[in-house]
Design a protein that fits this description.
Jelly Rolls, Arc Repressor Mutant, subunit A, 12 helices, Homeodomain-like_sf, transcription
């Protein structure tokens, strides 16, 4: 596979499940809702990377030995949105948004997601991953990729999925080698420093989710809890030391986005009501009062005094 870009296009879940099995060669794949599933991927030398977006699903994979032992593959998952359970050898690993883990593809496993997920998947020969080359044979339990070396690896790999289409085979191989070196740097990173930031990492994951979904009018604490697999009480605890609650943070961030659009000359053709509605405000008068309470001016006065003078 040099490069793959595929999305399910079928009327029924059964047909879409069959399409997914065919394109991914998964022995069993069951898509449980009507959301489109998509995959984009490429080979960077020894490293295969895929960006995957799916609704509710269960994927079962039979252990595969790919030739000599040194060519058996390790699978690494970065969960960008949603959560899933990975079941392997009687052990269940819960992978939440903002976390990564690794396991051996030569051992049968299942991935079970009760809701929509978005993830980045990597596969590479086990002899090129220091964790397995040094004797590890158990799954690497979930760790955060929202700070430190892991955040650099995630961002770089995500960018490589798009950039690879314009790269030659030699350059893709060199990029794969660089990413594998990054992966081994992540494995050797100081675990004490990472665990100390675990609460901060979870907060950053929530804030990132909020920022990516601010235009969704249904975004609230309950929705975040459902999508990210947290209890609402856990979310409130994560922000307990902040000056504002999570709900208030969402409200203020929406007002900030409205303010940015009102300042943007490229948005001058849009009405104030249109901008407010886009960022989740259904009541124009309520929006105007909230905007004035935060910024000291009504939206109309704010726009007129800055955009047109």
């Amino acid at each position: 596979m040099d490069y793959l870009s595929f999305a399910t296009k079928a009327a029924t879940r059964q047909e879409r499940s069959a399409q997914w099995r065919n394109i991914t060669q998964a022995p069993h794949a069951e898509l449980g809702d009507d959301q489109e599933a998509s995959i984009r991927g490429c080979d960077l030398g020894d490293l295969r990377i895929c960006a995957v977006s799916m609704g509710e699903h269960q994927i079962d994979s039979v252990g595969q030995h790919c030739g000599p032992d040194r060519h058996n593959l390790i699978k690494i998952l970065f969960m960008e949105e949603g959560h899933c359970d990975i079941v392997q050898s009687g052990q269940t690993i819960r992978l939440d948004s903002g976390q990564w883990c690794a396991f051996d593809k030569a051992v049968s496993y299942s991935m079970i997601a009760p809701q929509a997920t978005r993830l980045l998947a990597l596969a590479l020969p086990r002899h090129r991953f220091a964790a397995w080359d040094k004797g590890a044979r158990q799954p690497i339990l979930p760790q955060s990729f929202l700070q430190g070396a892991a955040s650099i690896l995630h961002s770089s790999t995500s960018a490589a999925v798009n950039a690879a289409t314009a790269m030659g085979r030699r350059d893709r191989g060199q990029m794969g080698n660089a990413l594998i070196q990054m992966l081994n740097t992540v494995w050797d990173a100081d675990p004490v420093a990472q665990s100390a930031n675990s609460t901060r990492a979870r907060r950053l994951a929530v804030i990132d989710f909020v920022d990516r979904n601010l235009a969704d009018r249904d975004l609230d604490v309950a929705r975040i809890a459902q999508e990210m697999g947290y209890a609402k009480r856990t979310l409130h605890k994560l922000f307990a030391d902040d000056a504002e609650t999570l709900g208030r943070m969402i409200w203020h961030r929406r007002l900030d986005r409205c303010r940015q659009d009102l300042l943007d000359p490229a948005q001058a053709h849009r009405s104030i009501t249109d901008i407010a509605h886009y960022w989740g405000f259904n009541d124009s008068q309520h929006f105007s009062r909230s905007f004035k309470g935060r910024f000291g001016e009504t939206p109309r006065a704010f726009r007129s005094s800055r955009l047109f003078h």
